[in-house]
Structure formats: structure tokens, C-alpha cells
């Protein structure tokens, strides 16, 4: 039992180190190959092809107030990689040169404007105030940076009692082995 708890404790410490490194060193996960930018870009490409993927992307974009996948301030341009939203494919459809409605800036108490992203991918577009422009990985990084100390404090608050219980479990095993040796 104490060995399993010790392994969990070590894994939590490694996860805590990753969160701290990710929040203070830009590009840390990209350099070690743990950056999901390519997977997110693939999700953007297949947005209309899979309803589950569409719901996933919409949920992330609404939760993080972002648009697109990349770790940049102009992540909304990632939607040019999707054939339905792309401006350059020559295919004309109602969504050409647009972004999904989940990219729209939500104002408290206002009705949802599903047309806010219409035509924002055109080269001459200058009014981007109706949509979130930063990519979702940039939004995720911002949330982690803003909440690093809250996460750190919560994890430390969990790790201290957990370390105490590992110590108690090891002590109990030692006491049991001492008693068994007396038999």
C-alpha cells in the first residue's frame, strides 16, 4: 500500500513540476515534444467532419475564450486550414472566410450572435472585435499562468497529508514486521 501511495506521490510531484515549468518557461512543452498543437490543428481541420470533434472544439473555444488552435495571438487564422471556412479554396459556401460562432466574444446578458465571425478571414478585415483572436493553446497557457499559485497551493495542500499517510503506512508495515519477528 505505501509503495503504491509513494508512486502516486512522485507522479503528483512530477505533474506539479510540469505545471510550474509550463507557466514560467514559454515553449517548454514544445521543446520536449509534449505540445498538442498538431493535434489541435488536426481537430480544426476536421471540425465539420465529426460532430464530437465539433462539440469538443466549440466547448474549448467557449471555455477559454479563444479561436483556433495555435499558441499565438492570431490563432483565428487557423480556420483557414479547414476546407469549409477557408477563403482560398474557391469553394463558395456560407461559411467561407468565416470562423465558427464559438469564436464570438460573449458579452454578459447579450444574445448569442452566430454571425459575428462572418468574413473575418478575408485579407482586408480590420474589425476583429466581435471574435476572440488568440489561439486556444495561448488561452490555456494564460489560464495556467494566472492560476499557477492556486494550483500549486492546492497540490501542496494535498501532498502534505498524502506524504504523512505514506509515512504512517510505512511505519505500520515496520511495526507489523517487528511483531512478526517476535513470533
Task: Give an overview in words.
- This protein is mainly α and about 180 residues long.
- The protein is built from 6 helices and no strands.
- α1 (about 1-25) crosses α5 (about 135-145) and α1 (about 1-25) runs antiparallel to α6 (about 150-180).
- The two termini are about 25 Å apart.
- Keywords: Membrane, Transmembrane, Transmembrane helix.
- Pfam families: Tetraspanin (PF00335).
- One of its GO terms (cellular component) is plasma membrane.
Work out the number of β strands: 0
How far from one another are the termini? 24 Å
Strand content: under 5%
Which runs of at least 5 residues are low in confidence (pLDDT < 50)?
Answer: none
Shape: elongated
Structural class: mainly alpha
- The helix content is 40-55%
Order of helices and strands: HHHHHH
Q: Helical stretch count?
A: 6
Mean pLDDT: 83
Largest sheet: none
Task: Supply database-style keywords.
single chain, 183 residues, mainly alpha, transmembrane
Report a brief summary of the structure:
Helix 1 (2-24) crosses helix 5 and helix 1 (2-24) packs antiparallel against helix 6.
